[in-house]
């Protein structure tokens, strides 16, 4: 046969090959069918003929597919078309597909190994005698064959279209011929067009896992610095002092040492130093609101002590406002007289307790938020 034609066909198929790159692929089993022209090797003494194939295959990955295929052709003999000549076989073939991302068509090459059977009638050479019944003699043989080819595949979803040109090297080394020259093999050229049809349901796209619901340990809806899992008082207000359970806690700015002399409402020098620190704290936390509360010991009448506690609270209030603390942040000044002692005014035996009374002569800043 014309070997130049075969080489040109194979090179033409490979010339459009592209660099392969990984992509998604349909891995369903498929059936294939094709038909085309079998250009017989001229040494066979047979005419070119139509052939058909039926296959079953699968893509192993985006680039490689494997397929089992049956083939059949029934060419006429050139010397006598009335004589029977048929060929059929089976092969296992692998195709390498040169696929590019998002491409709906791609080239491929084919390689495979198969088994071919030949069945033919022939008229025996008179020199070797004739059949006694007058019918043509028959010859049958099996042999190995090699498939090589190249083609293009077009993706239409479930159905793909294939066009292919290739060769089948048929190692038929025993022929029924009048001449005694025996060929070792024949090289047939095959050009075909066919379809592959995927079996089963359409492959479903992978379902992305639902985003994990946010954990309460990672959320702090009221912005108080305590996560929702541990927050027992959701809805805290800005500026509140919050405990580890998320609930507001009462806080007093420690004014230990802001005490007053007996029956006095004037600030002592040591009290002024402590109040200076309180001013800095209030400036550092501008959202804090505090109550200025004055207290007395138990010496004196209730009315007198109430008035004295109010004056003591007023003394601290005036100091704070005169040193830059906005009056809108201060509640009071409020006096509580002798009603809220923090230490005993008398001992257990009823005698005077000077130390306890000194601690009760005080002013406090009680945080309100």
TrEMBL record:
<keyword id="KW-0626">Porin</keyword>
<keyword id="KW-0812">Transmembrane</keyword>
<dbReference type="InterPro" id="IPR006664">
    <property type="entry name" value="OMP_bac"/>
</dbReference>
<dbReference type="InterPro" id="IPR028974">
    <property type="entry name" value="TSP_type-3_rpt"/>
</dbReference>
<keyword id="KW-1134">Transmembrane beta strand</keyword>
<feature type="region of interest" description="Disordered">
    <location>
        <begin position="330"/>
        <end position="369"/>
    </location>
</feature>
<dbReference type="Pfam" id="PF00691">
    <property type="entry name" value="OmpA"/>
</dbReference>
<feature type="signal peptide">
    <location>
        <begin position="1"/>
        <end position="22"/>
    </location>
</feature>
<protein>
    <submittedName>
        <fullName>Membrane protein</fullName>
    </submittedName>
</protein>
<dbReference type="InterPro" id="IPR027385">
    <property type="entry name" value="Beta-barrel_OMP"/>
</dbReference>
<dbReference type="InterPro" id="IPR050330">
    <property type="entry name" value="Bact_OuterMem_StrucFunc"/>
</dbReference>
<keyword id="KW-0732">Signal</keyword>
<keyword id="KW-0813">Transport</keyword>
<keyword id="KW-0998">Cell outer membrane</keyword>
<keyword id="KW-0406">Ion transport</keyword>
<feature type="compositionally biased region" description="Basic and acidic residues">
    <location>
        <begin position="354"/>
        <end position="369"/>
    </location>
</feature>
<keyword id="KW-0472">Membrane</keyword>
<dbReference type="InterPro" id="IPR006665">
    <property type="entry name" value="OmpA-like"/>
</dbReference>
<dbReference type="InterPro" id="IPR011250">
    <property type="entry name" value="OMP/PagP_B-barrel"/>
</dbReference>
<dbReference type="Pfam" id="PF13505">
    <property type="entry name" value="OMP_b-brl"/>
</dbReference>
<feature type="domain" description="OmpA-like">
    <location>
        <begin position="247"/>
        <end position="369"/>
    </location>
</feature>
<dbReference type="InterPro" id="IPR036737">
    <property type="entry name" value="OmpA-like_sf"/>
</dbReference>
């Amino acid at each position: 046969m014309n070997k130049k034609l075969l080489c040109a066909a194979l090179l033409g198929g490979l010339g459009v090959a592209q660099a392969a790159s990984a992509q998604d692929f349909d891995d369903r089993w498929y059936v294939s069918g094709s038909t085309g022209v079998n250009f017989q090797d001229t040494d066979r003494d047979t005419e070119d003929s139509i052939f058909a194939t039926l296959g079953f295959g699968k893509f192993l990955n985006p680039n490689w597919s494997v397929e089992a295929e049956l083939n059949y052709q029934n060419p006429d003999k050139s010397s006598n078309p009335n004589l029977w000549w048929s060929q059929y076989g089976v092969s296992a073939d692998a195709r390498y597909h040169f696929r590019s991302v998002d491409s709906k068509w791609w080239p491929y090459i084919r390689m495979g190994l198969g088994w071919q059977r030949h069945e033919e009638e022939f008229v025996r050479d008179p020199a070797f005698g004739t059949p006694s019944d007058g019918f043509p003699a028959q010859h049958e043989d099996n042999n190995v064959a090699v498939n090589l080819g190249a083609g293009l595949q077009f993706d239409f979803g479930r159905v793909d279209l294939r066009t292919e040109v290739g060769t089948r090297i048929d190692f038929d080394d025993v022929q029924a011929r009048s001449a005694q020259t025996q060929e070792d093999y024949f090289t047939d050229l095959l050009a075909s067009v066919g379809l592959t049809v995927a079996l089963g349901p359409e492959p479903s796209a992978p379902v992305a896992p639902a985003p994990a619901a946010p954990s309460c340990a990672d959320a702090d809806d009221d912005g108080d610095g305590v996560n929702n899992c541990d927050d027992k008082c959701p809805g805290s207000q800005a500026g509140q002092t919050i405990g580890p359970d998320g609930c507001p806690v009462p806080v007093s700015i420690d004014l230990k040492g802001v005490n007053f002399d007996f029956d006095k409402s004037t600030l002592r020098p040591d009290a002024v130093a402590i109040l200076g620190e309180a001013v800095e704290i209030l400036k550092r936390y501008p959202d804090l609101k505090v109550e200025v509360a004055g207290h007395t010991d138990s010496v004196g009448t209730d009315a007198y002590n109430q008035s004295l506690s109010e004056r003591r609270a007023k003394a601290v209030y005036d100091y704070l406002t005169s040193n830059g603390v906005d009056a809108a942040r201060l509640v009071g000044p409020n006096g509580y007289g002798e009603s809220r002692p923090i230490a005993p005014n008398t001992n257990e035996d009823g005698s005077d307790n000077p130390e306890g009374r000194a601690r009760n002569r005080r002013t406090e800043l009680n945080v309100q938020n």
